[in-house]
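Progress narrative, work stream C.
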Amino acid sequence: MGEILNRKGVKSLFIMAPDYPGGQDMVAGVQRTFKGKVSGKALTSWGTDAQMNFSAELNLAQQSGAEALFAFYPGEAGVQFAKQYHQAGLSKKLPLYSVFTINALSLPVFEQDNIEGIIGSRMTGIWDPTLDNEANRRFVSDYKEKYGRYPSYYAAQSYDAIMLIASAVKATGGNMADKDAVRNALEAANYESVRGKYTYGNNHFPIQNLYLREVVKDDQGKWSTKVVETVYTNHQDSYASSCSIKN
């Protein structure tokens, strides 16, 4: 997302995220790549006393002079954050860029409550229902037919994991006791992924594309997302060179 902000010419950014390791990692990631000024930052409480009222922080963001707002709020916190962002009327004043905050799990809630302010908001990720490959078209179509809604990133990730495991079972002839053979088969990623072809790096993390996605209404008026552009092609994570894994 930091790279997208650079491409969009954003010079200043306000950051919001929950104060726990996951939130801290997301903040570190965007700050590592964003070349502009961080005009302010609000890390809110998490855990059993997770903060769900963001009015003070959104007010700070508006007053910071930042050109854009970056947010990471998973689950119910994401729903509350997005609703309050909309209610504060910030969509025209402070464009929202997020990760793991607005997704297929929360969009039906926003659609039902007519939270129009999040239409056009943007997020980044490794997968989207509009990715144009055979495996993904089949997966999205079958999922919508069975459940009547778009699949989430988590559903796509789980589906891929099952297919990856199945490819290893097939490659080893079902001999899962041969751990080296299983490991090699998994690392080969010889299956049709819903995210398209990818490989594994030296640290066993995927080398894959990352996409900019936008909240839109589909041709039937249902709220979903679409790919706007490819941010990185065959991207390897920033820490791979520091990993000591040998195989």
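Work stream C, second folded protein:
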Amino acid sequence: MRIVFFGTGPFAIPACQWICQSEHVVQAVVTRPILDSGKRRKTSENPVRDLAESLGLAVMSPTDVNSPTTVRQLSELEPDLFFVCDYGQILSRECLAAARLGGINLHGSLLPKYRGAAPVNWAIYHGETETGVTVIHMSAKLDAGPCLAVDKTTVVADETAAELEPRLAQLGVRPVAKAIEMLHQWDGQSPLGVPQDAKRASKAPRLKKQSGLIDWRESAEQIFNQIRAFQPWPGSFTQWQGQNREPVRVILHQVAPVESTGGPPGIVLAADNDQLTVQTGQGGIQILSLQPAGKRKMDGAAFVRGYQPQVGDLFKNP
């Protein structure tokens, strides 16, 4: 089949590589334009573009994928199918109609749960022990089309979003192959896939900087899940307020829920060379690694030795 691939971020790479190595023809790759911020980056902000250019594929970077000009350009390619993954724009009904069979989308959750831009993060945030990937036949409504193929996996107890997302990206290759074959065999009229139950839908909105603010009134388990969920961005942050000291903003990288003796949320329960423990709304949190503002990441023991927090100090909202 003639396929146009829409993608930008790293989640799309394994599926894109498989399609490029398959018997199907990739006519073009549509990706988000790179906005020059003037800042030097350590990693590419558009790995799909990098892959496409390395393979000599035609690249389109429309500011608005649904503009009449872009839709006309796509129609002129006479594609059989659009494949969309980690792209960053929602395709309109008119845009999807430019491909003979419409479009399919690889999504990083077990739809209809966690529809939206950040499904992996919010699944971990809500303490899911199982997640997966879903390939849908696209509709104009966000992540709402019928499900063509699904694959599931267990969420490891201490797994972060930064660890789970590439695992799900690899997991998505097999259902993508299955979905494309379904479309290849489809007569264009028979019911396709399994309709989603809208009553079971939940949202996974785009993350914001303030999403990472720690509320110490939450339970230790919830804070543990938050810290895993919001890595690498926006991170989970708070302030340490030592006695007679200016507050220090810190990012918490790794913690462990522990039993506690109780006390006001955010109060330091233990601060010695072995551990740094803070009370939450329910239970305690042992801080295993953290990063003070302007400093490198360090373990809890190094923070205790260097900053000398005391029992009774507070971790609190800025």
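The CA atoms of residues 219 and 282 lie 4 Å apart. No further action is required on this item.
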